[in-house]
Give the backbone structure.
Amino acid sequence: QQKVQQSPESLTVSEGAMASLNCTFSDGTSNNFRWYRQHSAKGLEVLVSIFSDGEKEEGRFTAHLNRANLHVSLHIREPQPSDSAVYLCAVSRAGGSNAKLTFGKGTKLSVKS
Amino acid sequence: DPKIIQKPKYLVAVTGSEKILICEQYLGHNAMYWYRQSAKKPLEFMFSYSYQKLMDNQTASSRFQPQSSKKNHLDLQITALKPDDSATYFCASSQTGGAAEQFFGPGTRLTVL
């Protein structure tokens, strides 16, 4: 059964400094990786999706995937206080109709001005 | 306008009762999902439907029954409610196919007393 772990549990950065979040997964056949953001008591907003090793940039958000190391990371460039939220890593092994996402527990990011 | 509507936003129920959580999506998607997020666990996949047919069920209890009366509706009926059922329930939708992006609704927060 897929296990997804995120670190750190919480992270505080200053406005403008790079924020780096980590996610490890257990199923090496996984091929879909997404980062979501969840503001308090709200739904999820997808930030970036990545499907192959390397880097994928969406605005200030960059995901790095290394499937051999079972690791995907998210880097947030020039974070703002409005980026303060819980960031969730979601992993799936997409094939046919299989679309189940397995989530980590999240990293709570606080951005101080 | 919200593209995925979940009703109600908050719900309080007594142990042993039955409730129905409503989900409607206006994204033209053919696949819909339910996920649950409780205080102690990460966001967990419950069900997936494609073209109104059940594709995957990861919920051990038969007390949870999805109901799809229309292509863009996937309600969740929960019977014999228990305090452990207290959680936020998220509906999501996507185009069919395992790699498609899943978009999440705002959630229904259920509290069982």
